[in-house]
Amino acid sequence: MKWITRERPKIDRIACPWLIKRFIDPEADIIFVPDKQVKPLAESLQAIPFDIPDVEFTHYENQCTFDYFLKKYELTDPGLHIMAPIVRGADTDDHALASQSAGLWAISAGLAFMIRDDYELLEKGMLMYDALYNWATYLPQAKHVQNPTEHVLLQIYRTYLSQKGEKKNRVPGWTTELRELIQNHIDTNLNLSLKTVSENLDINPTYLSREFARYFDDLTFGEYIRKARIEKAIQLLESSENTLSEIAYLTGFSDQSHFTRIFRQHTGKRPSEYRKNLTKRKADSKG
Length: 287
Description:
Blueprint: E1 2-6, H1 12-24, E2 29-33, H2 38-45, E3 48-49, H3 65-72, H4 78-91, H5 101-114, H6 118-138, H7 149-162, H8 174-187, H9 194-201, H10 205-215, H11 221-239, H12 244-250, H13 256-267, H14 271-286
Parallel strand pairs: 1-2, 1-3
């Protein structure tokens, strides 16, 4: 059976072929083509299109194409259903659905950045999803012996909350550590969720958001993260030859248009305009 979808896959268009080959049709032929060619070639090649609008195998409401395959083929394997919200969260950029979604997005974006050939990318992605499936099947409750960074972040917040006698006009020591942790997450293209933090602390997220803003430029948690991403993007525009699409991925944006919109909100210019003006200023200074 032939299956066809858009080129340059990252999440759903790697997860679904993995699901097809491992649980539906081991001999399936997966075809990647430019967006506009999917439907015409699906008809001429007698291939089933997936993960594009207006076909059967696609997104429905808040569900991604991976979810639809599970429903369509009545796949009940528990490991697959542990994987489903992880894939959905990574594919829809809703990392609150599963704590592993941010990691899946980061690894998938990194693979797509390194590997330009879609079929080589699928080959590497098959191994990645084999590993995720084995974790979901055999190790979902296993813990690493070391505390991950996110747990350290929670410990910093708990320390702050326990310091009842600290004066309001004094900047607490945890803010320096928190800034470093946020910067580390920005540098590794990972996401921090205020919702996850507040749930683990068992406190109202509104209260946590208000306390965060007091020490972080009067910005909300999300605003501060976006600001940090834009600052990193500016550094890359000034110091690298990366394309705008590559910078968008390196700074954690879902795509170049999302990156352009947020960058313009923060700087008043599109990234391309910013880089063009920068090149002109460098040329003028040399002249």
